[in-house]
């Protein structure tokens, strides 16, 4: 990751990313914008973490895909998915996150994983 500190603002940026990019410039009080940018700094950290977490998860699921293909197991496992959804809905509720959103998010990821598994199985045939 290439990180630079902007001489003028002291802001860290990677790959030309401007953490102050906004369509709101000039429309709000500068103090409000400063508060907004401070909160967005944390949003950026969370988003970066999500990318790293997803990358690790997909590394794992690719391994599962290769294992399933080698042993001619089906790409999807509905029993496993149902248990994951139930668990994540419970965790979401405890964390004050909408369980329906948690379920939708998991389903979105799992459907991508299953497509990968189908592709790996097709390559193995
Ligand atoms: C990763 C697997 O394959 C599929 C994808 C899953 C997931 O992304 O969590 C879960 C179940 C399967 O439908 C698995 O069987 O563990």
From TrEMBL:
PROSITE patterns: CHORISMATE_MUT_2 (PS51168). SUPFAM superfamilies: Chorismate mutase II. Residues 1-14 have a biased composition (Polar residues). Residues 1-25 are annotated as: Disordered. Residues 30-121 form the Chorismate mutase domain. Its EC number is 5.4.99.5. One of its GO terms (molecular function) is chorismate mutase activity. Keywords: Isomerase. It holds the Pfam family CM_2. It comes from the Bacteria. The keyword Isomerase applies. PANTHER family: CHORISMATE MUTASE (PTHR38041:SF1). NCBIfam families: CM_mono_cladeE, PRK09239.1. This is Chorismate mutase. It comes from Citricoccus nitrophenolicus. The lineage of its organism: Bacteria, Bacillati, Actinomycetota, Actinomycetes, Micrococcales.
């Amino acid at each position: 990751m290439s990180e630079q500190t902007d001489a003028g603002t002291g802001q860290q940026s990677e790959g030309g990313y401007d953490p102050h990019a906004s369509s709101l410039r000039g429309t709000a009080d500068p103090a409000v914008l400063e508060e907004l940018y401070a909160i967005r700094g944390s949003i950026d950290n969370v988003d970066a973490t999500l990318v790293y977490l997803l990358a690790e998860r997909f590394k794992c699921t690719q391994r599962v895909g290769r294992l399933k293909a080698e042993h001619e197991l089906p790409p999807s496992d509905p029993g496993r998915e149902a248990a994951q959804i139930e668990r994540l809905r419970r965790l979401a509720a405890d964390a004050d996150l909408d369980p329906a959103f948690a379920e939708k998010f998991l389903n979105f990821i799992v459907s991508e994983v299953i497509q990968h598994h189908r592709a790996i199985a097709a390559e193995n045939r």
